[in-house]
Amino acid sequence: MAISDPMLICGGAGYIGSSFCYCLKKEGYHPIIVDNLSKSDGKVVSDFEFYNYDIGDYDKLSSLIKRRKIDVVFHFSAFIEVSESVLYPEVYYENNTAKTISLLKACIDSGCRYFIFSSSAAVYGIPDEIPIDEESLCFPINPYGKSKLMIENVLQDLEQKKRLKSVILRYFNASGALPTLETGEAHQPESHIIPNLLDVALGRKEYFQIFGTDYPTYDGTCIRDYIHVEDLASAHLLSAKYLLENNKSEIFNLGSEKGYSIREIINKVEEITKKKINVIEGKRREGDPPVLIASSDKAKKILKWEPQHNLTSIIDTAWKWHKKRFG
Known about the structure:
By secondary structure, the protein is α/β, with parallel strands linked by helices. The protein is about 40% helix and about 15% strand. The strands form three sheets. It has a seven-stranded parallel beta sheet, sandwiched between helices.
């Protein structure tokens, strides 16, 4: 079954959302971006149909969905900084939870049938077993993860009442840049490891700080599963096709199924950039689990999703994009 076009991309001016939009455009689709540009410089929106709306604006969203006969909504709009969510939980519950509920209501009231939700591995908290599959218990340890899990629960309730079908995608660490270099990872402010390391390699920052060297891991630093943004984009398109063909809600992990420590990422960045990274060691940040590694077997089996990139490709594309943007 063909995917209804156009599709609405909420948060399409951000890192993952814009990457997905370029991938859709390459496949011949017409993505419509809604974004309030609060966390983006908006450079990509000139390439797409764009509306500077907040996802909490029920009237504007419901009108747009009705007018353009939107049947599939992809929701990338969220605040994502774990440490910030610990300091300002009310901001995260307002933006990630309350405004998303308003968006869901606009979808339902306007006749949209399908919703793809960008969730997070943060919903798992500190897992009992590694790798983490979708049946693992969800006990998020920070407001960011809690805000995502709340929406997962809402979507499951809507599924039970046959109000809206959805696919929930639990990302692990999104990273890398599109090989075509249209867009890459840049947050405001930047808190993610790879772009921060690349800023040091380019001389834009003096040092990289490791937050915690006493975790119960093989080198004392946190271990994460890094997945290329282009692989995430392909999973979103496959999820939309799955929904239309099966009319059934699902939850999928999206990760590479490989874990790398902070020190291993530093070493790989030094190898690819040929630059020595000045590193200082600091205390742990509140809300950071020691290890998060995905089991993505379910997505591979049901969606027929196969990641195409490895860690070398992730850092290589990120470095090329970083040099293009800042070099």
